[in-house]
Amino acid sequence: MNGNSKNLGYMLVLLGIVLVAVSYMFVYKKTNQKIDEIDAEISTLKTRQKQLKRLEADRENMLKNKAEAEEDYEELIKGFDGDITYQSEIMDAYEMTQEFDVEITRLALTPFTEVYSFGGIPSSNPNGGTGGADPSYIGKMESYNMSARADYDTTKEILEYFIDGKAPYREDGKRKVISSVTLLPDKAAQTVDVDLSINEYAIIGDDREMTEVPEYEYPTSTPNIFWGDEIIAQ
Questions:
Q1: pTM to 2 decimal places
Q2: CB count, 10 Å around CB of 64?
Q3: How far apart are the C-alpha atoms of 1 and 219, rounded to whole Å?
Q4: pLDDT digits (tens, 9 = 90+) for 114-171
């Protein structure tokens, strides 16, 4: 009987050890693992809290910088027309002949090209997001050559027409850049033959509008083979 009691005692002790081991494996170990996870999360949240406190302290300055950046962005976009067409370039050339009383002897146009897509630059915002530019915006370019003949003073005015020393962008909202220029003076006639290679840029997009292209009505005439008068048609 005493032997059985002794064996029972050993069994109870062994059972207790097993229960302790099971408790360690399934309770204590998992508890420690959960504590480690919570500690890691707390550390991450503390780091985020420091970032937010720093941003909050700099909030006014950030809002000021944001407003200035938006103003600069709008000013930059305004420096480009909402589109380019062959008609607009031809009429620009015509307007130049009227403004400077100059003869344009050649205007050679080329196909349009898309040179830039907006909105694809990743934002530096810590919360992620895309760039601030409208993703519908596309940078459009057309290269063309223009030849003209003018006196010396008018030649300078023509160059200033494209360069525009008062601002980086022309006041009429058209971005025209001279890529090359050739001047051939004629001393006898006191004129200069000007040959220009020009790149014109525009930013097209969903909310962009093109500068209105002026339209003129020109009288066209057909000589009458029977007498000296002309038949005029509008």
A1: 0.61
A2: 10
A3: 134
A4: 888 886 655 555 555 555 567 788 889 999 999 998 898 888 888 888 876 443 344 5
